[in-house]
User: What shape does this take?
Amino acid sequence: MLNSEFIKYGAVNLEDIEAIHLNGDFDSVLNLLQGQVTSDCTQISEQSGQISSLCNEKGFILCNFEIILDQNKWLIIIDKAVKDIFLDEIAKFLPFYKVSAELLGYKVIGVSRKKDEPMPALEHLILKSDKATLSLLIDKDNQYHRELDNLSIDRWAINRKIMGDHQIKYEERGKYRPHELGQQNTRVSFSKGCFKGQEIIARMEYLGKLKKETRLIAHSSQEEVSEFIIIGRSYQDQEIIFSSCLGKIDSFS
Assistant: This one.
């Protein structure tokens, strides 16, 4: 795994993250999500969440988020900066499924563990690799006790990039399709059936030829990546800057 030696372990309070409860009959919420988001929500369980996306009809990504089941509640874990994008899009369909969307105000803890380290029952796995796992914990009553080292928000974001998760920010909504960011490998199901933007995304998967892609570059100055488009934010740890860089495939060689 690229730059796996830079992964760090511990727990962090994700202060810029919001929990949205999709409140309704369990199967109604599942059916609502299946028709809208890119991932296959039938694969979600109490300890196994998903990273996912919401796209428009043309297959462009509107926002990225996680979906988890916490004590049988469907929760969308999303950056506060883009939560209104999700809420505005999903609001069009809520009445048809008799579902409501509620902001919970819960604290969300991100936990980075070594691959073979046991994960407590209340955590929800969202990413894994041959080196590490990333999980989420919903701290409803502010009773989380840190038995792990403190992890910074930037280090949590760097871990995600190292594990191949390149996310867009608010200003990039509607600019990129999943294949440009590698999200076809992490956030998209091609077997679950229709979802918004599915036809175009599937056409790119089976008929298109990928000309650009996003890769993580660890560099010592911003000038080193001037030929690429930086996706999301760059994050610095000591002297190293980590950037998700979009460019022509042959430009990475």
